[in-house]
């Protein structure tokens, strides 16, 4: 079955979601082939391995939907600031977007997966880059305008800077498989735990107490025993005793 147009595309996926996982997989495959074609679709085999861990359990279609949500929010903010027309909630969604827009959002998502960057972070900072360009505008930037080398260099420079990266939420509202009780040590979970290591390194680089940075993850993402194995008993005990109310601003300097 071939799916053409945004209405038929949305109907096909939404019906499948009411029928179970196997039906969803078939529908997503069918819709993706018609939306982006087999060559672009095949590229997901490699780039999904490098994606930011938050999206590791998502299918390419689900990940594109998540990027679409972030785009809508970020571009809406930009449009409001510029006093121009804001995109609707359906503008970027692979369920409802025009074929051209759906293709472009898919390709942007593949670029971000290959970079291993948080969609939220990328959209927030790409919009800031765009807002700094002091020119008259009549429309919001298109997805492919957000992944030019200049924009990517700007965002990725910030992504590697602890000052900016430290503000990126990790594990909040993520898939339940990231919770401590669902840990099985798979590749996605292993990659996610490296974010905790990075968060502690960033805290130290910024002059914050690493125990306070560790506190939100002990018992929720890491068992206390695993945390001690990774970071030492002294740091974990301090983290376990810490509550945000202990300091104004939560993460205070050491």
Could you characterize the architecture of this molecule?
This protein has 11 helices and no strands. With 254 residues, it is an all-alpha fold. Helix 1 crosses helix 2, helix 3 runs parallel beside helix 5 and helix 10 crosses helix 11. The longest helix is centred in the first third of the chain and has 27 residues.
Percent of residues in β-strands: under 5%
**Helical region count?**
11
Helix content: 55-70%
How many angstroms does the end-to-end distance come to?
A: 61 Å
* Content-based structural category: mainly alpha
The overall pLDDT average reads 90
Radius of gyration computed on alpha carbons: 20 Å
Regions with little confidence, pLDDT below 50 for 5+ residues: 248-254
Q: How many DSSP-defined strands?
A: 0
Biggest β-sheet: count, sense, barrel?
A: none
Query: Outline, from the CA principal axes?
Result: globular
Order of helices and strands: HHHHHHHHHHH
Keywords:
254 residues; 11 helices; 0% strand; disordered C terminus
The gist of it:
This protein has 254 residues and is an all-alpha fold. The chain has helices at residues 6-17, 21-47, 60-82, 99-115, 119-132, 149-159, 162-165, 187-205, 210-214, 224-231, 233-241.
């Amino acid at each position: 079955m071939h799916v053409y147009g945004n209405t038929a595309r949305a109907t096909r996926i939404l019906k499948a979601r009411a029928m179970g996982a196997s039906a969803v997989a078939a529908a997503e495959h069918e819709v993706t082939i018609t939306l982006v074609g087999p060559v672009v679709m095949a590229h997901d085999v490699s780039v999904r391995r490098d994606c930011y861990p938050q999206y590791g359990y998502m299918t390419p279609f689900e990940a594109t939907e998540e990027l679409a949500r972030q785009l809508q929010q970020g571009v809406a903010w930009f449009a409001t600031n510029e006093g121009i027309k804001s995109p609707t909630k359906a503008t970027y969604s692979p369920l409802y977007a025009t074929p051209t827009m759906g293709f472009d959002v898919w390709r942007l998502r593949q670029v971000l997966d290959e970079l291993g960057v948080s969609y939220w972070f990328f959209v927030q900072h790409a919009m800031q880059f765009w807002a700094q360009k002091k020119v008259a505008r009549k429309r919001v930037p298109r997805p492919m305008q957000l992944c030019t080398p200049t924009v990517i260099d700007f965002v990725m420079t910030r992504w590697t800077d602890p000052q900016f990266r430290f503000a990126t939420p990790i594990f909040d509202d993520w898939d339940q498989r990231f919770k401590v009780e669902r840990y099985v040590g798979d590749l996605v979970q292993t990659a996610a735990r490296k974010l905790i290591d990075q968060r502690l390194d960033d805290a130290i680089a910024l002059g914050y107490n690493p125990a306070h940075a560790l506190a939100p993850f002990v018992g929720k993402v890491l068992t206390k025993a695993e945390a001690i194995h990774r970071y030492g008993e002294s740091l974990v005990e301090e983290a376990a005793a810490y509550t945000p109310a202990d300091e104004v601003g939560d993460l205070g300097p050491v």
